[in-house]
Amino acid sequence: QVQLVESGGGLVQPGASRRLSCTASGFSLEYYAVGWFRQGPGKEREGVSCISISDGNTVYTDSAKGRFTISRDNAKNAVYLQMNTLKPEDTAVYYCNISPYPVIDGRVNWGQGTQVTVSA
Predict the structure, then answer these.
(1) Tens digits of per-residue pLDDT, 19-60?
(2) Residue 106's CB: how many other CB atoms inside 10 A?
(3) From residue 100, how far is each of 3, 9, 29, 31, 34 by CA, in Å?
């Protein structure tokens, strides 16, 4: 069964950093471009970033540019989102999903997500 699992969320102070992890069961992420998404309180889910399959090319939405970095470790079957200089408006549930790089658009069933709360 294809399953994506996000982890690493939590309560962080404004200006702090956090690294989220995305792992998969039932398939290998190394054959897919992977995106990160988020859904803030009362908002629709939106794309944040995407990483290509093999050459490591990345794209970011304006809200993530300069602060977030997406990366992948195929040996660990994982994709990461390093988030720096977090702001209260980054508060959201964060999800990963297969995405047709460079388009940031989820293509398989969503996982549970991981909650990131940025608050003093």
Answers:
(1) 999 999 989 999 999 999 999 999 999 999 999 998 889 999
(2) 19
(3) 18, 25, 13, 11, 8
